[in-house]
């Protein structure tokens, strides 16, 4: 039986009386079946037409019910921009209710914010298609940020019923919105607020879906910051630990995101690993075949780099980097993989050491020759520079006797395992 | 959004069940810059439904020597029989017929 407006109001009243957040979420979702019923009931509903229902419920719920009909109508008539605007009003009215209530309302909040984001996505898509201004997603992020404030400032509710249990989910939605429009730095305010609030429960106490999404975005923000810091080269020379911190943080957060992610959420696991694997490669941790098998797209993209590193095959490494340049740049992976080239050179020089039967004295000309075999056409001076760089970065232990053109290597552990290097991100 | 489902995004979240069935094919294909981190179908789950379940007591990401079989941290290989190494050895042998080069021969 179709749901008419008065039934809808009764259902809203019941959900409020029972403090049932999940039912409330269902009732406010534009895709729920009753949405279509209400659109039919009012034909082309307008605000003046619906205003007579003001007062039919306790405020602000009379307004929210009216907004809901308007949103559903615009969605049905394929007017995503209008649907977004009306839904924004619905969210604002809901927030008036939300800030005076406890955590049971969170499922409804999450649902309407998710819908807001989806409507912004549709509205931007539609606007771009018609060559119009498309800033709906940024507007959505601003509205969602207000909801975040109402979560984090809950000082009244008992801890187990606090609206604070919504902070990480909502923060995840905000970052997702800003990532979409490539305005990532705008996420900083909410991250600062999270750090400044000491009485938020530990992240590990939140549902796993909140933890994983939040960690993914924190990991990504750090991953991308690391790329950006490359631009400020002088700054880096002065403060190399800055890079260490961001890459380290990115690796740490993405590792936790991966391990706490549901194994059935393949697409999300793949997304995390796309950035986690290159970071871990820099640490000398190569993904096991078993892991790559599970993600064929990643295997296809990354295994040529991995086997080149294993074999110290710089020519193969460079070829792979060049052939995939566009794709790697699009994925923001190019710089990270380019740094892994040093691991490949270390592998090549280690081969020289093995061919020289792990001698402690190896002429620079041998390293020079190994580069030539690899198709790297450089002078012996340049080869000497490469060796010096390897020693400086502790890929090799030893020193160069420049007059004798000889590399003197440590008798023990001349090529430490990559995974054993201290602070592997510091000198990348 | 049900009616605007022609837009790519709305599908993912509003029809999780049907869509997920078709996912494996898409997985094999591409990594896209525009892919989004998806909404999870459930809010919470326990260790048995994560990759933590495969750790034999090690910390996540600790690599094989730390009990995490998904990562290899001990992969340096002393075997030089494969083509690339053989080629390198031949080339080096050509340059240093006696194998062990000395400082003198290098300074010529």
Automatic annotation (TrEMBL), chain A:
Pfam hit, one: PCI
Molecular function terms from GO: double-stranded DNA binding; RNA binding
Family matches, as PROSITE patterns: PCI
Domain (PCI): residue spans on this chain: 212-414
Regions annotated as coiled coil: none
InterPro entries, A to Z: Csn12-like (IPR045114), PCI_dom (IPR000717), WH-like_DNA-bd_sf (IPR036388)
GO biological process: poly(A)+ mRNA export from nucleus; post-transcriptional tethering of RNA polymerase II gene DNA at nuclear periphery; transcription elongation by RNA polymerase II
GO terms under cellular component: transcription export complex 2
Family note: Belongs to the CSN12 family.
Name under which the protein is recorded: PCI domain-containing protein
Organism expressing this protein natively: Amanita muscaria (strain Koide BX008)
TrEMBL record, chain B:
Stretch list, region Disordered: 1-35, 48-69
Key words, A-Z: Nucleus, Proteasome
Pfam families the UniProt entry points to: DSS1_SEM1 (PF05160)
Any one of the GO CC terms: nucleus
Biological process terms in GO annotation: double-strand break repair via homologous recombination; mRNA export from nucleus; proteasome assembly
Domain of life where this protein originates: Eukaryota
Keyword DNA-binding: no
Function: Component of the 26S proteasome, a multiprotein complex involved in the ATP-dependent degradation of ubiquitinated proteins.
Protein's recorded name: 26S proteasome complex subunit SEM1
Native source organism of the sequence: Amanita muscaria (strain Koide BX008)
């Amino acid at each position: 039986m179709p749901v008419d407006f008065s039934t809808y109001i009764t259902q809203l009243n019941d959900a409020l009386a029972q403090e049932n957040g999940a039912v409330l979420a269902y009732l406010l979702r534009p895709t729920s079946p009753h949405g279509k019923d209400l659109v039919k009931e009012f034909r082309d509903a307008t605000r003046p037409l619906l205003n007579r229902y003001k007062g039919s419920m306790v405020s602000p719920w009379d307004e929210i019910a009216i907004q809901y009909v308007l949103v559903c109508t615009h969605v049905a008539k394929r007017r995503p921009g209008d649907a977004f605007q009306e839904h924004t009003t619905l969210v604002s009215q809901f927030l008036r209710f939300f800030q005076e209530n406890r955590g049971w309302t969170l499922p409804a909040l999450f649902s309407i914010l998710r819908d807001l984001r989806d409507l912004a996505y549709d509205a931007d898509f539609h606007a771009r298609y018609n060559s119009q201004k498309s800033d709906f997603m940024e507007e959505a992020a601003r509205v969602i940020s207000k909801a975040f404030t109402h979560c984090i400032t809950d000082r009244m509710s008992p801890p187990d019923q606090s609206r604070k249990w919504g902070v990480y989910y909502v923060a995840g939605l905000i970052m997702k919105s800003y990532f979409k429009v490539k305005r990532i730095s705008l996420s900083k305010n909410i991250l600062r607020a999270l750090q400044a609030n000491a009485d938020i429960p530990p992240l590990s106490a939140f549902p796993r879906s909140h933890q994983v999404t939040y960690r993914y975005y924190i990991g990504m923000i750090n991953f991308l910051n690391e790329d950006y810091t490359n631009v400020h080269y002088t700054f880096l020379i002065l403060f190399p630990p800055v890079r260490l911190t961001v890459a380290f943080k990115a690796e740490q957060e993405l590792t936790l995101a991966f391990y706490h992610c549901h194994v059935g959420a393949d697409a999300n696991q793949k997304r995390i690993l796309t950035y986690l694997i290159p970071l871990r490669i820099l640490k000398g941790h190569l993904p096991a075949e078993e892991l790559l098998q599970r993600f064929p797209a990643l295997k296809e993209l990354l295994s040529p780099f991995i086997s080149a590193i294993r074999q110290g095959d710089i020519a193969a490494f460079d070829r792979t980097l060049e052939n995939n340049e566009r794709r790697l740049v699009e994925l923001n992976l190019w710089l990270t993989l380019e740094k892994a080239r040093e691991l490949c050179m270390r592998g090549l020089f280690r081969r020289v050491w093995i061919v020289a039967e792990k001698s402690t004295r190896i002429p620079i000309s041998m390293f020079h020759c190994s580069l030539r075999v690899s198709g790297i056409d450089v002078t012996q001076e340049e080869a000497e520079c490469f060796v010096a760089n390897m020693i400086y970065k502790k890929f090799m232990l030893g020193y160069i006797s420049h007059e004798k053109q000889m590399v003197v290597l440590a008798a023990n552990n001349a090529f430490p395992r990559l995974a054993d290097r201290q602070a592997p991100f510091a000198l990348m | 959004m049900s009616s605007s489902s022609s837009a790519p995004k709305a599908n993912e979240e509003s029809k999780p069940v049907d869509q997920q069935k078709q996912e494996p094919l898409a997985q094999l294909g591409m990594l896209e810059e525009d892919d989004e981190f998806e909404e999870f179908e459930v809010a919470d789950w326990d260790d048995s439904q994560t990759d933590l379940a495969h750790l034999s007591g090690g910390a996540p990401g600790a690599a094989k020597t730390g009990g995490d079989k998904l990562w290899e941290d001990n992969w340096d290989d002393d075997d030089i029989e494969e083509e690339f190494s053989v080629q390198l050895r031949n080339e080096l042998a050509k340059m240093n017929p006696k194998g062990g080069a000395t400082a003198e021969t290098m300074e010529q």
